[in-house]
């Protein structure tokens, strides 16, 4: 039962680190460093559970056979290594931060993807993550401009309306 509990805890920690890596955080250096440290800790803790599992397996054996313990250790560590390799691959697939813009109370982020397309996202109001892309562009680098209540994406030969701002003052007057 202890081995099963430790294996479940290993999976919980690995999937939590996997989830933290999937979330698209805002481009804030302090936040990114904190998240990376937490992800590293979430990889170190399962190593402790692997150690306790291997020690328990070795102590429960009637005939102490080192090759079985080494095989279990190799299987468990390669399981954790598989998660690490998937997370490294996901890290290469993330988009690159270009610039942010603030219009009224909204913050917009411009990112460049690996396929050289540009996308615009909005910062969430409550938590430090960015939204899914609200617009994608395959042309040259874009910049954002505000005209009246609208946000426009401007690049070479392109002038596209991408977002409508709402004035909170106007809403309160009604």
List keywords for this structure.
four-stranded antiparallel β-sheet; 174 residues; 50% helix; disordered C terminus; 4 helices; alpha+beta
Low-confidence stretches: 169-174
Shape: elongated
Name the structural class.
Answer: alpha+beta
The string of secondary-structure elements, in order, is: HHHEEEEEEEH
Per DSSP E runs of 2 or more residues, the count of β-strands stands at 7
Beta-strand content estimate: 15-25%
| Strand order of the biggest β-sheet | 1-2-3-4
Q: Estimate the mean pLDDT confidence.
A: 87
N- and C-termini, Cα separation: 63 Å
- How many helical elements? 4
Sheet with most strands: 4 strands, antiparallel
- The helix content is 40-55%
Instruction: Indicate the radius of gyration in whole angstroms.
Output: 24 Å
Report what the structure shows:
The chain has 174 residues and is α+β, with helices and mostly antiparallel strands. 50% of the residues lie in helices and 24% in strands. The protein has four helices and seven strands. The strands form two sheets. Strands 1-2-3-4 form a four-stranded antiparallel sheet, with no helix packed on it. It has a three-stranded antiparallel sheet with strand order 5-6-7, with no helix packed on it. Helix 1 packs antiparallel against helix 2, helix 1 packs parallel to helix 3 and helix 2 runs antiparallel to helix 3. The longest helix has 32 residues. The chain starts with a helix and ends with a helix.
């Amino acid at each position: 039962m202890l081995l099963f509990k430790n294996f479940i805890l290993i999976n919980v920690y690995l999937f939590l680190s996997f989830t933290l890596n999937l979330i698209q955080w805002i481009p804030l250096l302090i936040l990114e460093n904190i998240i990376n440290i937490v992800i590293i800790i979430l990889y170190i803790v399962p190593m402790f559970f692997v150690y306790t599992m291997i020690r328990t397996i070795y102590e429960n054996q009637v005939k102490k056979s080192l090759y079985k313990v080494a095989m279990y250790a190799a299987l468990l560590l390669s399981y954790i290594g598989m998660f690490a390799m998937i997370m490294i691959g996901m890290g290469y697939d993330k988009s690159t931060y270009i610039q942010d813009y603030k219009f009224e109370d909204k913050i917009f982020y411009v990112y460049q993807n690996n396929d050289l397309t540009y996308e615009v996202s909005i910062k969430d109001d409550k938590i430090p993550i960015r939204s899914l892309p609200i617009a994608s562009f395959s042309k040259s680098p874009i910049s954002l401009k505000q005209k009246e209540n609208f946000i426009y994406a401007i690049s070479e030969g392109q002038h596209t309306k991408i977002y409508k701002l709402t004035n909170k003052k106007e809403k309160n007057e009604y």
